[in-house]
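User: I'll paste a sequence; please echo it back and then give the predicted structure.

Assistant: Echoing your sequence first, then the prediction.
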Amino acid sequence: MSTQQSASRSQRLNQITHEPHGRLDALVKAHAPFETPAGYARFVVAQYLFQSELVALYNDAQLGSLIPDLPARCRAEAARADLADLDTEIPSPVAGAVTNPSQAEALGWLFVSEGSKLGAAFLIKRAEGLGLSETFGARHLAEPAGGRAEGWKTFTRTLDSLVFTPEQEAEADKGALDAFNRFTVLLEHAYTAESA
């Protein structure tokens, strides 16, 4: 009972993902995606791969009953359009995508995906330095309808209001940690798969 009082579920997920989040940020910086258009295109490849793996979660009817605007929150199509803008091929899927997670685990994945929209506020400014915008090449970083902060608050309010068993809490934690680790794998893949 006391844990519920001391920190909300979303705060706890933030705390437990602090380390992988920091590692991922450092990795993104190391690849310097905003230095050149080609480097940025590889970053969008990683974003597309990650978002396309989550399409089934964003379109899940049960999750959608909890978060009514969930399908509209998905950014896979925006990232696909960005790749077209950047004359970059749609990448093949990478083995290891999340499949049939429990609802709590799926919410952990969505927590990471939705949270990344807050960081996108800074990234889109960097993308603008490459001549891109929310209508060309950086659509997946665009501000969601209703604003970034409001969209995040709505999502975390719902997440924090759900009643979970201790097992479900552990599943949500696993989902969030797995999501960070997965994006890290996809980012490395995007930059090492760089051929042409």
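Residues 35 and 130 are 8 Å apart (CA to CA). The chain has a mean pLDDT of 94.
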